[in-house]
Amino acid sequence: MTRAAAVLGIQQPPLSQQIMALERQLGLTLFHRRPRGMSLTDAGRLFLPEATRLIQDMVALEQRMARVAKGQTGVLSIGFTSSTAAHAFVPRLLRECRRSHPAIALELKEDNAAGIIEAVASNRLHCGLVRVPVNQPEKLKFETLLSEPVVVALASDHPLAQSKGGSAKNQLSLLDLREESFILVRRSNAPGLYGNLLALCRKLGFEPRIAVEVEKMLTNLNLVAAGVGVSVVPASMQGVQAHSVCYRALAQGNRLDAPITLVYRRDDCVGPTKEFVRLARKIAAEMKSE
Questions:
Q1: Residue 83: per-residue pLDDT
Q2: Tell me: the pLDDT tens digits for 103-135?
Q3: Total Cβ atoms within 10 A of residue 255
Q4: What is the C-alpha to C-alpha distance for residues 124 and 275, in angstroms, rounded to an integer?
Q5: pLDDT tens digit string along 56-65?
Q6: Helix 89-100 and helix 271-289, axial crossing angle in degrees, nearest 10
Q7: Which of 46, 121, 212, 225 has a CA-to-CA distance to 219 between 20 and 30 Å?
Q8: How far apart are CA 10 and CA 43, in angstroms?
């Protein structure tokens, strides 16, 4: 008993008291106590391998949780909008996360900005990637990682798509679109980017005519391709419907931008979430310098 206490780094009496307390809890005698030593009872011999297994499991659990705390393993649920997924940043970030942390299981969900922000706030997602935040609950942290210009999207047979008219350098001004019908992502779900667009149109002296509001930007561009109207989208969306949609630079592009915003809970930036935030910042910095 004295040698065992020395290995554990405690005094012998407290160890004896803990063993007796365990025996009382189990209702069994684990040791034969003799004047010169101790030996296991039959019950003690049965208890020993199970106790050893429990200790080993506890050590393994502590090691596993330490890896989770360091962001090396665990589950990470991420939400993203269709327009952020179209940017080269998102697949690059996800590839790097899988490469550098293969033990982190990624759960991915596409939604609109409002849905993602609400899901992060209610603990159904760990973090999300959106454009302009639709609202900013106090419990959430919003970081702008990158920003890109917006472009005008028109059906490929639209007169403004064929013409070199409009602003200098083949740009279009919003004033060139004042007689057009706009297709916009539903403002209740994404008022940020499109709210800014509507405000700028009004500042230029006209109220844009809205043909239809949709929930996702891919639907938006499908309707542009069908000739339903025109739209303004982030530049990284230019590969969508490339044969049916023409993309033109916007003269007021410096007054409208499309950021990529990372959102996560202020009090939960630990483990895999903390590591994902670190990777997102790192890759965004690399892309800015390229």
A1: 87
A2: 888 999 998 888 899 999 999 999 999 988 878
A3: 15
A4: 18
A5: 878 767 766 6
A6: 130
A7: 121
A8: 25
Residue from 186, 246, 242 nearest 219 by CA: 186
Identify the CA nearest to 232 among candidates 267, 202, 256.
Answer: 256
d(CA 30, CA 43): 6
Cβ atoms of residues 130 and 84 within 8 Å: yes
Q: What pLDDT was estimated at residue 162? A: 72
User: DSSP assignment of 45-69, as one string?
Assistant: HHHHHHHHHHHHHHHHHHHHHHHHH
Question: How many angstroms separate the CA atoms of 100 and 92, rounded?
Answer: 12
Return d(Cα 221, Cα 260) in angstroms, integer: 19
Tally of CB atoms within 10 A around 89:
21
Spatial separation of the C-alpha atoms in residues 286 and 290, rounded to whole Å: 6
Q: Amino acid letter at 228?
A: V
Q: What is the crossing angle of helices 42-69 and 271-289, to 10°? A: 30
Query: How many residues does the structure list for the chain?
Result: 290
- The Cα 212–Cα 228 span in angstroms is 8
If 0-12 CB within 10 Å is exposed, 13-18 middle and 19+ buried, where does residue 207 land? exposed
Please give the model's pTM, rounded to 2 decimal places: 0.69
More confident residue, 40 or 56: 40
